[in-house]
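Before a colleague's protein record goes any further, I have to sign it off. What it holds is a sequence and that sequence's fold in C-alpha cell form. My question to you is simply how this chain folds and whether the C-alpha cells agree. Thanks in advance; the entry in question is below:
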Amino acid sequence: MVRAVLLGLLRTMRPHQWVKNLFVVAPIFFAREVFDPQRLHVTMAAFALFCAISSSVYVLNDLADLEADRAHPVKCKRPLASGRVSIGAARVTGVGLMLLGLGGAMLISLPFAATLLAYLVLNIAYTFKLKRVAYLDVLCIASGFELRVIAGTLAAQVPPTTYLLVVTFLLAAFLAFGKRMHELAQGDGAVKQRAVLQRYQPQAVVVLLYITALSTVAVYTMYTLDPDTAEAFGTTRLGFTVPFTLFGVLRFLRLVSNRGDADSPTEQMLRDIPFLVNLALWAVAVTAVLYFG
C-alpha cells in the first residue's frame, strides 16, 4: 500500500518533465565551464532544486484540476484523479517540495532564490488564472523557460548571451504552440477539457507555430555564424550543428500534426526514436565543437 502511494506521488511529480529543467544547465554549457567543478556542482544543485519546484507545481496543478481530470478519458488515470493518492498526501508533498526548493535556493544565492520564487509565482498564477487566457498562456510557458536560463546564469555566475535568451524564448513558444495545435487536433473532447482552446483560432495557431519554428532555426543559425561566436569559441564549425536543429524542429512539427495517443507532444518526443537520436547527435556535435574543436 505504501509503495503504491509513493509510486503514485512520484508519477504525480512528473519526473519525465524534468528534462525541461536542463535549460538551467544551458548557460554553463555554452559558456564552456562544464569542467569547472565549483560551477558544475552549483549548477547541478540548481537543476535539482528546479526539479523540486516544478514537481510541486505539477502536484498543485493536479489538485486544482482534480474534477476536470476525473472527467478526462486519459487524465482520469492519474494517481490523484483515480484515488490512488489522497488529497492530503498530495498537499503535503507539494508543500514539502516547495519548501525544499526555496530553502535550498537560499543556500546558493538570493538572486537565484528570487528567480526560483518568480518561477513558482508565475506557475501558480498560470494554474489558477493565466492558463485560461488564450495566447497569454503560451507567453507564460515561454517565460518559464527564460527563468530557467536566467536561474542557471545566476547560480553558476556566468553572463547570459542575448542569443541564448532569444532562442530559448522562441523555442519554448514553438513547443507551446505545438502543444496547443496537438490539443486542437484532438477535437471537441480536448476543447471541453481545456476551455482556453475555445478562444484559439486554429489558423492563427498554425501561423504562429510556423513563425516560431522558422524564427528558432533562423536565430540559432545566426548565432552559429556570428563572428563574435566564432571569436568566443575559436571556431566556425558550430554552423555544422544547424541541420540537427532543423531536423528537430521539422520532426516536432510532424509529431504535433498527428493525433496520436499521447497526452502531450512532450510525451511523444520522449518516445520518438528519430527525435531522440537527432537530439543526441546534436548534443554530441555541439559538445565536440565547443570543447574539443
